Amino acid sequence: MDEINVILISSVRPENSFSAAVLMYRHLVNRSGIRLHILPAEYHEIVHGRFHSKIVPRLMRTPARRWAGDVDYLMHTTLPLEKRLVAPPRGTRKVVLTLAYRSGCWVAQRYARRHRVPLIVRFDDWWPDIAEVHNPVRRQLEQRFLELHRSADLSLCISEGMLKALGPHRNARVILPIPDVEAIGPSKSNDSTDGFRVCYSGNMFDYSDMLADLAQLALKQTDVRIEFRGRPRWPQALMDEMRHRHLLHDFASAPTFDDWLGSFHAYLVVMFFDAAQRRRTETCFATKLVEYSRAGRPVVIWAPETSAVVQWAKKSRAALCVTDPDPRALLSALAHLKMDRALQLELAVRMRRAYETEFSPVRLQQQFMEALNSVI
What we know:
By secondary structure, the chain is of the alpha/beta class. Helix content is 44%, strand content 14%. The protein contains 16 helices and 12 strands. It has helices at residues 19-28, 43-46, 50-59, 65-78, 104-115, 135-151, 160-166, 208-218, 236-244, 254-261, 278-283, 287-292, 308-316, 327-339, 341-356, 361-373, and strands at 4-8, 34-38, 94-99, 119-123, 154-157, 172-174, 196-200, 224-229, 248-249, 266-270, 299-302, 320-322. Helix 3 packs antiparallel against helix 4 (65-78) and helix 8 (208-218) crosses helix 14. The model has no long low-confidence stretch (mean pLDDT 93).
């Protein structure tokens, strides 16, 4: 079968970096059956205007960021930016792919319509609840977000919760996050004298407050050692203390990171308990969960009962769930897990099975390719 020309018009590009970019990279780059074409997606890339390339980004870091967000949204939903992009390649096997995140998706939607090419939209997060805009614009943004789902020839949802929240669609599919093909083996740096070691390597910016509360309590623990990797917005004194004890680490290159990641007894996934973030937790499926599955060791999820990851864990029984927002409840659960060797082995076996079945990179890529072929 001939290759599929995937025309990517998205604010997020395939990169081996953060979650959404990594998922695109794994599905699209150096993949058999795919010829990738990346087109500009945002105003400053298409028009090269100083206002949008310099002034708007600066405003987004100031108290005027919502006004800048309003302007950004209105420009991308009203200006015919798609007319400035090159035409699709010749042939019939082509699709337009975008991620429903930031402003590139609106350009992609109109480009696909203009050139009569099937539109595929990935929904990884509930963007209307994240966007820095004023409430009147947010309401309009949410309507467009839902309309983007309905208008797509194929809607790819990251979780069952996302599919339910978006509503009915003639061709919607759930494709879970795709992990790396390489399993995480035991690390040479694993030192049993460190006690029961738990890893958190995820979003430390958005979760800074709840992780700070956890870190402050964990400092007093002697039976469980929690290590973090990332750049949180913590008080300087807390960061200094954590770094001094080698509990907080900065970003690292792949070999160093992989060796560190393989040195733990268990892994931690967190989601918001804040009621204002409920829809995000119910629709987003934490990429770190599938990444941790590569280790075949216990995963502990600290998240609300209604979150997508807890719902998955309840069905699969492949992770230990702590649904109490009090960090003391989490530390108690970790201490219990340390003492229960049978539970550790049971969770490890089930997580390894998840990596080999539901989270299998081969299986998820097959699902992705079948989905693409369904609209051609």
